[in-house]
Specification:
The structure holds two protein chains of two kinds. By secondary structure, chain A is α+β, with helices and mostly antiparallel strands. Chain A contains two helices and five strands. In chain A, strand 2 and strand 3 form a beta hairpin. Chain A is globular. Chain A starts with 9 loop residues before the first strand and ends with a strand. By secondary structure, chain B is an alpha/beta fold. Chain B is 39% helix and 13% strand. Chain B is built from 20 helices and 18 strands. In chain B, strand 17 and strand 18 form a beta hairpin. The longest helix of chain B is centred in the N-terminal third of the chain and has 29 residues. Chain B is globular and about 90 Å long. The chains are: A alpha+beta, B alpha/beta.
């Protein structure tokens, strides 16, 4: 795991399965070597900067409900 | 026997013609909404100067006699009503400005008050209020007698809100946050968020600038969009959760794009579960579907209308859209936009007005429509409608069908009927990823608001009856030789095209065809100038008798079938021109009103002679 983010890294939301608590999240982050940029606790979502490979790896983790990439929105 | 069937034919013809005339006049009556300006004269002053000025601007004048109240009519207190049967705010504003010159303690006029289908004497003293056609349309003056939004917190999740606005007291901003820089510096570096906040809660009756819908509401400025107006879905989701957890009662999302995201759908559902009402812009793609996030089931999606209640040309509509509210339409004049206070740095690049040194900008967009509903929601919340589901049912249940075909938010009715049980609105269809895309092609009842066009069909049939009757009387023709199905096909194509199937235009496959080609099917051939060149007004070079004559020559009518089709087409054209003259009364180049009407009707009557020429052959 290199510390410098890869060129194609971007922000992803990682949604935890129901029942995964703070300890579960800590274990998940340890497994994948991640540090959360921030958490949206009521939604059980944590935000990470990930490469597409890392995002795919998280997607198949049993504690993860889904992984979704950040997108751009604009004024209307 | 012969005479009896003749009588039946007479009665039937008179009935059809009578029905057509009645329909045309009923349609016309429906259009008679008017803007009125009330002018109070100083005691003893003559009305002639006001009458002259009004006539110069094409307005009508009558004396208004109020029977009761402080405005009760006396000879000392003469009130003139100046009115016009159209809703062009720019024109009304020009007259108000011109009347201003006659004002003053020594002038003719004591006061000038616009009366836009609301009683005039409650107007706020904000000097640019006269330009807020959108607020008058919402009947704010009546609303403010019942609610002002006091202490309701509306989160504006946007480009931030400026704290330097002359017309938005920073004391009414609650603690905000900047989700981009992760600090509490939410100052607006774009202008959009300030404008949106202004529509909701601009300082009102303060003698500066403009008014807002819920003038005592508090704004929670949450900055998620940067200087260029763009931002991150995840920041927005976080801001929605923050707003719901930190006391926002209403959440306004004048943003969109990027398609479906599950995170945002969950954030909106969470906010609703915490009792917050989430309102979002339907999107500016001109598509028959709402964009996201407005489209999520927990969000009220708002389309935008212009000054004449028309669907704004850019506004999304159809699937997933809940209501329509004013969002502005500047395609005619900048005054067709929504006017609110904005940061001074926009003044170089944007159309604006100045009041007491502050800048006020005309914006248009579904972004401007959503805060109208957010402001209304704040009033309803204060009045006691706090549950998001209930508020949604109330807004949808009391909305009125408007000329746009979409339900127009009607806050006065919502306030009056808030205690009544409302039907539960049908749940918005769940939308996820590819499924959401697929729904873009679902069948979808669209805009059905084409009174002049419907009248065209009815009048066309009446003309056909008249035509048939005239020929039959001469005994040279029989019923079979006069009326045929082909003639009816021609009539419909000439009068309206397939406009009565206009809702199909927003469906596949027509919604993927270029607009101007799909439009050819759904409009009378006499409207091809408008369809092909996107004209706002019909062109006199196409809407005249020469074009039908050209069609008549091109369609070789040696063949009996073609001849009958052409007869129908000519009858349709004639009906189309006459209806346009009576109902629309406008055409490019020529002045609107009588001249345009006379031109169109005269051409229509000329075209009505063509079928007789064809029948002689």
């Amino acid at each position: 795991m290199s510390d410098a983010p890869a060129a194609d890294a971007q922000r992803y939301a990682v949604k935890l399965r129901a029942g995964v608590d703070a300890d579960g999240l800590a274990a998940l982050e340890a497994r994948h070597g991640l540090t959360a940029l921030r958490r949206i606790a009521p939604l059980r979502i944590a935000v990470y900067t990930l490469t597409p490979e890392a995002a795919r790896a998280l997607q198949s983790d049993p504690d993860v409900e889904y992984v979704e990439e950040d997108r751009t929105m604009t004024v209307r | 026997m012969q005479s009896k069937s003749g009588l039946v034919r007479w009665v039937a013809l008179v009935a059809v013609f009578g029905a057509a005339v009645a329909y045309v006049f009923a349609a016309k009556k429906q259009e008679q909404r008017y803007d009125e300006i009330l002018v109070r004269l100083h005691e003893g002053q003559r009305a002639s100067a006001v009458r002259k000025l009004a006539r110069e601007h094409g307005f009508k004048v009558r004396e208004r006699k109020f029977a009761v109240g402080p405005n009760a009519w006396t000879r000392k207190n003469r009130v003139l009503s100046i009115y016009k049967y159209d809703l062009d705010p720019a024109r009304v504003n020009r007259v108000i400005a011109a009347l201003g010159a006659l004002r003053g303690p020594t002038g003719v006029v004591a006061s000038v008050e616009p009366n836009f289908r609301v009683r005039a004497f409650d107007a706020p003293n904000d000097p640019l209020y006269a330009k807020q056609w959108n607020l008058r349309r919402m009947r704010v003056e009546d609303l403010w007698k019942k609610a002002d939004g006091k202490d309701v917190v509306v989160a504006v999740i946007d480009t931030g809100v400026s704290t330097k606005l002359a017309d938005l007291d920073p004391k009414r901003l609650v603690k905000g946050f900047n989700f981009i820089t992760r600090d509490d510096k939410f100052e607006d570096d774009h202008g959009h968020g300030s404008h949106v906040a202004g529509t909701i809660a601009q300082d009102t009756n303060n003698g500066i600038g403009v008014a807002g819908i819920a003038p005592k509401a508090r704004i929670m400025p949450l900055k998620v969009l940067g200087r260029e107006g763009g931002g991150s879905t995840l920041d927005i989701a976080e801001a929605i959760v923050y707003a719901a957890d930190n006391g926002a009662h209403i959440i306004n999302l004048s943003l969109g794009g990027g398609g479906y995201t599950q995170v945002l759908e969950e954030a909106c559902a969470y906010a609703q579960s915490k009792g917050a009402i989430v309102i979002a812009a339907a999107g500016n793609e001109g598509q028959p579907t709402s964009s996201f996030p407005a489209r999520y089931p927990s969000v009220i999606s708002v389309a935008a209308s212009g000054p004449q209640d028309e669907l704004a040309p850019y506004s999304n509509h159809g699937q997933g859209v809940d209501v329509i509210a004013p969002g502005g339409n500047t395609s005619g004049a900048p005054e067709g936009g929504i006017l609110q206070n904005g940061p001074a740095f926009l003044a170089d690049s944007k159309q604006h007005e100045v009041s007491k040194g502050a800048h006020f900008f005309y914006f248009q967009g579904t972004s401007m429509a959503a805060p109208h509903v957010a402001g209304v929601a704040a009033l309803l919340h204060q009045a006691g409608v706090k549950d998001p589901q209930k508020l949604r049912a109330l807004l949808l249940g009391t909305a009125e069908k408007s000329v746009s075909g979409l339900p127009f938010v009607t806050p006065m009715s919502a306030l009056e009927r808030m205690k009544e049980p409302m039907p539960t609105p049908p749940p918005k269809p769940g939308v996820r990823g590819a499924e959401g895309q697929a729904q873009a092609y679902r069948f979808d009842a669209g805009v059905v608001a084409a009174t002049p066009q419907h009248a065209g069909i009815v009048l066309g049939v009446a003309l056909l009856g008249f035509f048939a009757f005239a020929l039959l009387r001469r005994k040279t023709h029989t019923m079979e030789s006069v009326v045929s199905p082909l003639m009816l096909v021609g009539l419909v194509l000439g009068a309206t095209g397939l406009s009565f199937l206009g809702f199909l235009q927003t469906q596949a496959p027509f919604n993927v065809l270029p607009e101007r080609f799909a439009g050819l099917l759904f409009n009378s051939a006499l409207d091809f100038d408008r369809v092909l060149f996107f004209l706002n007004e019909p062109s006199p070079f196409w809407h005249n008798f020469l074009v039908p004559a050209l069609f008549m020559v091109l369609l070789n009518f040696a063949d009996e079938g073609k001849r009958r089709f052409t007869i129908g087409l000519m009858l349709g054209f004639a009906a189309k021109l006459v209806c346009e003259g009576l109902l629309v009364r406008e055409i490019a180049v020529l002045p609107d009103g009588f001249v345009a009407a006379a031109f169109l009707v005269a051409n229509g009557l000329i075209v009505f002679m063509f079928p007789f020429i064809l029948a002689k052959r």
